[in-house]
Amino acid sequence: MNALTIDIRPAEPADAAAIAGVHEMSWQNAYAGLIPHKALQRMLARRDSRWWDRAIRRATSILVIDIGGAIVGYATLGLNRARALPQEGEIYELYILPEYQGIGLGGRLFAAARRMLGDHGCKGLVIWALEENLNALSFYTGLGGRDVAEGAETFDGRMLRKVAFVWD
């Protein structure tokens, strides 16, 4: 009998192409119809495997979910960029391939990212999500996040509201 392993680990340069694929598929799934098409395509084109390789080599904090050698999700994390919020850590991105969503992998990746931030001395955590991304809002609420602030992002002249979820 073969055992399939699920590992959450720091990204390695060899993961760059796979992370780029997860990024493209999960962003298309989450944002098609929300972010204007041309803006979304530009964002996706910018984050190719070379971009991810550079990020990994620059020691950006990136965790991946590795299932039997296949990367099916990733999270990027670091210090909170919103000075108005007291939480010290931030998960910048947390994405799972659409076909792997809904089976608990996102929660496991969130917990690992939160642990990593705590291990680096960060007290509290913030995550931003577009207000129209109902799946993300439901996911973060289900993880116990509190909606405490709002902001906005502009894509090709279209302003989209975003929500900050926090954990103390």
Description:
The protein has 168 residues and is α+β, with helices and mostly antiparallel strands. The chain contains five helices and seven strands; from the N terminus they run βαααβββαβαββ. The chain has helices at 16-31, 37-46, 49-57, 105-119, 134-142, and strands at residues 6-10, 61-67, 70-79, 89-96, 125-130, 146-155, 158-167. Helix 1 (16-31) crosses helix 3 (49-57). The model has no long low-confidence stretch (mean pLDDT 95).
Give the helix/strand class.
alpha+beta
Enumerate how many helices there are, as a single number. Answer: 5
- Strands, count: 7
Rounded average pLDDT = 95
Strand content: 25-35%
- Calculate Rg over CA atoms: 16 Å
Helix proportion: 25-40%
Strand adjacency order, main sheet: 1-2-3-4-5-7-6
Shape, please? globular
